[in-house]
Backbone:
């Protein structure tokens, strides 16, 4: 069973933004196509406002349905479950818990890893303890006491359990950020980070038992308009020149969070550091689920990525094949 939260009915009783539906469908359709080539019988759910996808048996979810009960029933009937859901509000954790309690094979991360990586402050602390370079992350209270408060630093604020660029804002100075946080009563729900210039990038990888295999090294296209960050797309393998360094970092992350499993996306910033004589790679966040880059992986790698992921998780004798590093552009 494939459960994609946005297109699968997660917003069945709420407005369905076109951008979210498009991005969700992009990942879902790529995964369903890859799984269909492996001769599995695949089920999924679909929001009644959307056209049903190919390559799966679909259950329609309308505004009157209890989507969580629909998903429980679908999961109960399946042997294995592949979840594509946001970490926000604990949604991914809850779906994973439902599948785990039913004894299903979850083709994704474990509950411990999801719980930590959902929380940006907990992720920051774990990465810092592991001596992995990451962006300083502060609570509102810590930020108020920061020595940097009176500098010309640009600041980002985002929900502590947000996904990607969702609800991420950039402010040119501390005064404007302070006003926004207080007036919108976000002191306890948001974290604050100094804005870090550099090339936004990501690592698509497969993790299992503290080890990582890199699928692609990607360039991210991110705009800042009227203080708001927005994700415009990705060039899969646009950062392939950094493959070795990204591979080392992915394995450090896997060792730090051994419950990460299956597909994992790591958002990073690549910063040209002339003093070091090499580029510096800084972790922004860890995504314990499929990301948009997945949609380009079949073409980028020359192999079926779903097959690689499944074999990594269930076949102890599986040997990772040689994969291609083709560039593929995806726009959302």
Residues:
């Amino acid at each position: 069973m494939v459960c994609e939260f946005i297109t699968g009915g997660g917003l069945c009783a709420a407005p369905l933004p076109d951008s979210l539906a498009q991005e969700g469908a992009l990942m879902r359709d790529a995964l369903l196509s890859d799984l269909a080539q492996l001769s599995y019988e695949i089920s999924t759910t679909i929001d009644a406002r959307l056209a049903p996808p190919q390559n799966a048996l679909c259950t329609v979810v309308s505004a009157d349905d209890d989507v969580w009960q629909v998903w429980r029933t679908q999961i109960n009937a399946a042997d294995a479950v592949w979840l594509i859901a946001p970490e926000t509000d604990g949604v991914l954790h809850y779906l994973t818990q439902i599948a785990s309690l039913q004894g299903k094979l979850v083709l994704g991360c474990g509950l411990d890893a999801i719980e930590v990586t959902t929380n940006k402050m907990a992720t920051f602390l774990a990465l810092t303890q592991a001596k992995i370079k990451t962006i300083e992350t502060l609570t509102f209270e810590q930020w108020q006491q920061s020595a940097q408060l009176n500098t010309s630093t640009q600041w980002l604020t985002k929900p502590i359990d947000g996904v990607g660029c969702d609800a991420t804002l950039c402010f040119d100075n501390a005064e404007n950020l302070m006003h926004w946080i207080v007036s919108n009563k976000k002191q306890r729900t948001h974290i604050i980070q100094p804005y870090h210039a550099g090339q936004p990038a990501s690592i698509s990888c497969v993790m299992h038992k503290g080890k990582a295999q890199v699928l692609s090294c990607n360039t991210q296209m991110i705009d800042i308009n009227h203080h708001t960050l927005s994700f415009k797309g990705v060039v899969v393998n646009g950062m392939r020149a950094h493959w070795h360094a990204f591979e080392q970092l992915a394995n450090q992350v896997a060792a730090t969070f051994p419950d990460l499993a299956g597909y994992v996306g790591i958002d990073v910033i690549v910063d040209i550091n002339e003093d070091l004589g090499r580029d510096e790679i800084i972790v922004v966040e860890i995504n314990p689920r499929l990301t948009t880059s997945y949609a380009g992986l079949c073409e980028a790698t020359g192999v079926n990525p779903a097959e690689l992921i499944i074999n990594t998780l269930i076949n102890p004798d599986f040997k990772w094949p040689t994969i291609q590093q083709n560039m593929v552009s995806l726009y959302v």
